[in-house]
């Protein structure tokens, strides 16, 4: 674990020798894996010891079908064809990929691609498996699936697994030890309890445990539930603060979606969606990978072609708006926030944004400074950390002061402190009377900011209601706090602390 | 259930057999029958994979070639005596182009000769299109000798990169819309992010391949030696072709030398790359039959004269895959129980 940009990925790449062999750089000191030094061996000479799966596994695919991809590494090693055949079959079974064996790699969902990438390195029978944010792009259920398979590999094969991950709430229950990369070049290695007790960034369950002085410090929901009995009694008489949900009827509608159908070739991505968003609402759209979230968001700014139905922004069809008229109504932060950046420095991006939104020069920079006081204006946007880049894109989008802000997967790759900053920004926007729509897999974020949750499955809206009602009704999508304190209607750690303070 | 596909090289042997037969002027009925047999085999054996569309593209291409040949044949050619059907106005040409005429009388002999030539073109294109529609190109690449492995990997990577490139252009265009950017000329704004994207992708792919052992056992000396032999074999074969076309003696010797060098070069180079193949494509009875019929077809048309008997023999030989080849599954080598 560690903050964004602290060097987690570099540490993983050091272990298998990609740093410095592939990236360049100066290495001092010595890394040995099973007695072999990465100084003397190139990564390709360590494949029988180390397997690595990068942050976006689909970018590392070499072939085009699942089975060939899994066999690719072995072909390079010169493993006899019969052995290869046997290992591929074993691996397909181990990772539950047998039905996908003939599928084209480009048709796989995020979770499936992750599993194929893991299978592809496992066939070389490594002793160590390195994973860089394996669950960051996955919905909670797919993440659970990948992590439980990893746990099984550790049990069955005695594999050593090193995972770099921001969403500690997902992985904490599986880990034996934590390497905390501090960001100043130092690391701390210790048992999860020790590291968590010292660390300021921690998942809600640990925060709650620390606050209540629970001993031993709970790391999982199960541990915490056992210790939570006194707290549950204390909270029984209190009621959670009512979420500031604006009177929907009284406020003007900013977005109306009527019977929206989106079709890609033969697949219906959205099958007739209806909903409205009024001013000041924070709506979270949730659902599995491929449920149609991104298509829905894309249609609200007119980048997803609509087959039938209507998308009205402030009464006007979204697809017909352009330029200034569009961006003063809606600000869109896509999944890959870097897509919006094409300048060569932060300052240049800000000038572009001022011109595009037709505002006074310096406006964007002023907004950026509020979001992120310590940014270097001459830095290249690509060199910024994930969190800084998100702030820059937000500043660009907010320059035109849109009435509706749309975010697609904003917390991907964000650490806890960057997430907290984002939560503050979103709350402030809602307080100003702007609306926010966010599509995300991050239940904790939804619990913090959303006033309403819409649940999509297979292109249909299957639930639409208040955050509390929707999140607590589904076990997979419930935040940690609500799991611990069920049946109490609590969602976040901050709700509990403020309620306790008031009493 | 034997649910496998024919070895791609067998399909190519069949296609080449038809093409060679067509080029040896076997007569109009034989040409027509060759086209029919190609179409029948393709429609009954093709898979639903994208390359199966090659045949219909081939038909269109062939028709265009046929039309162009007809137009050229009618308007521009050396005079052929015979029954004049109609006369086109003649275009005056300078003296040094004597012997060529644009326009002029069109005889029925000229029309029929041009039509047969056009049909030959059509059949040739159709034969190649049929083979490409049936042979699985990915399996073909995989069946290449070890030395060609790297080229094969590069080809496969490039085929997967094109869709990525398209999506990255789309994303950048969408981003400009999202920023409300309405400047028209924005090459830099589009090109820079796309190049950055592709570069990043290439670096990631390189890292992934490196960490999965790609190129682990390549000994560069052996491969260099092998590729030098291969290069000389190509030179020898080229000389052979030149000699053959110029009708100079020694073509056969150059061919033989080139082929021998080719075999040696492939052997040496393959020895130096220790690489194994996952589920190699098998060459079994059906492949042998298709190869044998194709060779017979070529021998028949080279040795025999035009007759009803040879024409029907050509048709039967060309259509043999219809009976022996399995239907292309489209899936990657699903090997039957017999294996």
From TrEMBL, chain A:
Coiled-coil ranges from the UniProt annotation: none
PROSITE patterns attached to this UniProt entry: ABC_TRANSPORTER_1 (PS00211), ABC_TRANSPORTER_2 (PS50893)
Gene Ontology terms, MF aspect: ATP binding; ATP hydrolysis activity; ATPase-coupled transmembrane transporter activity
A matching Pfam family: ABC_tran
Keyword Glycoprotein: no
Keyword Transport: yes
This protein's GO CC annotations: ATP-binding cassette (ABC) transporter complex
Domain spans labelled ABC transporter: 1-208, 255-483
InterPro entries: AAA+_ATPase, ABC_transporter-like_ATP-bd, ABC_transporter-like_CS, ABC_transpr_CbiO/EcfA_su, ECF_ABC_transporter_ATP-bd, P-loop_NTPase
Entry keyword set: ATP-binding, Nucleotide-binding, Transport
Name recorded for this polypeptide: Unannotated protein
Organism: freshwater metagenome
From TrEMBL, chain B:
A GO cellular-component term linked to this record: plasma membrane
Keywords: Membrane, Transmembrane, Transmembrane helix
Record carries keyword Transmembrane: yes
InterPro entries per record: ABC/ECF_trnsptr_transmembrane
Subcellular compartments: Membrane
Coiled coil: none
Transmembrane segments: 12-43, 55-78, 115-135, 229-246, 252-270, 282-303, 309-325
Pfam families in UniProt: CbiQ (PF02361)
Lipid bilayer topology: Multi-pass membrane protein
Protein name: Unannotated protein
Protein's organism: freshwater metagenome
């Amino acid at each position: 674990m560690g903050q964004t940009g602290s060097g987690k990925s570099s540490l993983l790449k050091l272990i298998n020798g990609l740093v410095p062999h592939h990236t360049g750089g100066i290495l001092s000191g010595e890394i040995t894996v099973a007695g072999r030094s990465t100084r003397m061996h190139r990564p390709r000479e360590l494949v029988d010891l180390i397997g690595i799966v990068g942050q976006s596994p689909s970018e590392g695919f070499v072939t085009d079908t699942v089975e060939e991809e899994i066999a690719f590494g072995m072909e390079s090693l010169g493993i006899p064809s019969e052995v290869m055949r046997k290992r591929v079959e074993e691996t397909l079974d181990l990772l539950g990929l047998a039905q996908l064996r003939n599928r084209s790699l480009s048709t796989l969902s995020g979770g499936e691609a992750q599993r194929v990438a893991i299978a592809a390195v496992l066939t070389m029978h490594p002793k160590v498996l390195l994973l860089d944010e394996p669950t960051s792009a996955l919905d909670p259920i797919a993440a659970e699936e990948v992590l439980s398979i990893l746990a099984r590999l550790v049990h069955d094969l005695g594999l050593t697994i090193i995972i770099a991950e921001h969403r500690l709430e997902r992985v904490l229950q599986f880990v034996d030890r934590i390497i905390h990369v501090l960001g100043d070049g130092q690391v701390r290695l210790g048992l999860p309890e020790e590291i968590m007790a010292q660390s300021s960034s921690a998942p809600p369950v640990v925060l709650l445990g620390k606050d209540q002085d629970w001993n031993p410090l709970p790391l999982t929901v199960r541990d915490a539930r056992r210790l939570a009995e006194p707290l549950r009694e204390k909270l029984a008489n209190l009621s959670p603060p009512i979420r500031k949900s604006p009177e929907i009827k009284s406020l003007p509608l900013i977005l109306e979606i009527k019977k929206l159908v989106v079709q890609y070739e033969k697949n219906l991505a959205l099958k007739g969606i209806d909903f409205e968003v009024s001013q000041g609402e924070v709506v979270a759209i949730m659902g599995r990978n491929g449920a149609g979230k991104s298509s829905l968001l894309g249609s609200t700014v007119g980048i997803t072609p609509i087959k039938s139905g209507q998308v009205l922004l402030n009464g006007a069809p979204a697809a017909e708006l352009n330029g200034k008229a569009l961006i003063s109504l809606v600000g869109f932060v896509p999944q890959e926030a870097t897509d919006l950046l094409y300048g060569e420095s932060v300052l240049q991006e800000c000038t572009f944004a001022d011109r595009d939104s037709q505002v006074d020069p310096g406006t964007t920079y002023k907004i950026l400074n509020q979001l992120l006081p310590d940014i270097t204006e001459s830095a290249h946007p690509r060199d910024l950390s994930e969190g800084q880049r998100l702030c820059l894109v937000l500043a660009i989008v907010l320059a035109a002061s849109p009435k509706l802000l749309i975010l697609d997967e904003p917390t991907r790759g964000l650490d806890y402190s960057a997430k907290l900053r984002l939560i503050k920004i979103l709350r402030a926007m809602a307080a100003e009377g702007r609306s926010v729509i966010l599509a995300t897999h991050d239940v904790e974020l939804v619990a913090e900011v959303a006033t309403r949750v819409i649940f999509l499955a297979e292109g249909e809206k299957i639930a639409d209601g208040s955050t509390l009602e929707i999140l607590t009704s589904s076990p997979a999508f419930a935040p940690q706090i609500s799991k611990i304190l069920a049946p109490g209607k609590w969602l976040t750690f901050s709700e509990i602390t403020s309620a306790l303070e008031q009493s | 259930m034997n649910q496998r596909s024919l070895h791609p090289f067998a399909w190519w042997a069949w296609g080449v057999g038809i093409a060679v037969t067509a080029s040896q002027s076997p007569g109009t009925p034989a040409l027509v029958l060759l086209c029919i047999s190609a179409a029948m085999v393709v429609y009954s054996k093709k898979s639903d994979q994208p390359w199966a569309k090659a045949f219909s593209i081939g038909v269109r291409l062939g028709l265009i070639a046929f039309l162009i040949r007809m137009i050229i044949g009618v308007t521009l050619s050396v005079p052929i005596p015979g029954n004049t059907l109609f006369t086109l106005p003649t275009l005056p040409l300078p003296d040094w182009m004597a012997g060529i005429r644009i326009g002029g009388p069109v005889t029925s002999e000229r029309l029929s000769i041009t039509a047969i030539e056009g049909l030959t073109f059509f059949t040739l294109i159709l034969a190649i299109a049929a083979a490409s529609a049936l042979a699985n190109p990915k399996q073909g690449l995989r069946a290449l000798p070890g030395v060609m492995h790297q080229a094969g990997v590069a080809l496969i990577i490039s085929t997967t990169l094109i869709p990525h490139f398209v999506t990255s252009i789309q994303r950048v265009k969408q981003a400009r819309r999202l920023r409300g950017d309405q400047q028209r000329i924005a090459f830099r704004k589009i090109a820079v992010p796309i190049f950055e994207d592709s570069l990043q992708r290439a670096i990631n792919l390189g890292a992934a391949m490196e960490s999965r052992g790609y190129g682990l056992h390549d000994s560069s000396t052996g491969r260099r030696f092998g590729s030098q032999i291969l290069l000389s074999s190509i030179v020898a074969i080229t000389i052979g072709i030149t000699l053959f076309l110029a009708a100079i003696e020694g073509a056969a010797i150059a061919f033989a030398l080139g082929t021998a060098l080719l075999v040696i070069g492939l052997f040496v180079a393959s020895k130096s790359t220790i690489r194994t193949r996952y589920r190699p494509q098998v060459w079994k009875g059906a492949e042998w039959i298709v190869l044998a019929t194709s060779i017979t077809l070529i021998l028949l048309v080279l040795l025999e004269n035009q007759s009803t008997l040879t024409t029907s023999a050509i048709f039967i030989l060309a259509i043999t895959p219809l009976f022996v080849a399995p239907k292309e599954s489209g899936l990657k080598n699903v090997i039957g129980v017999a294996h």
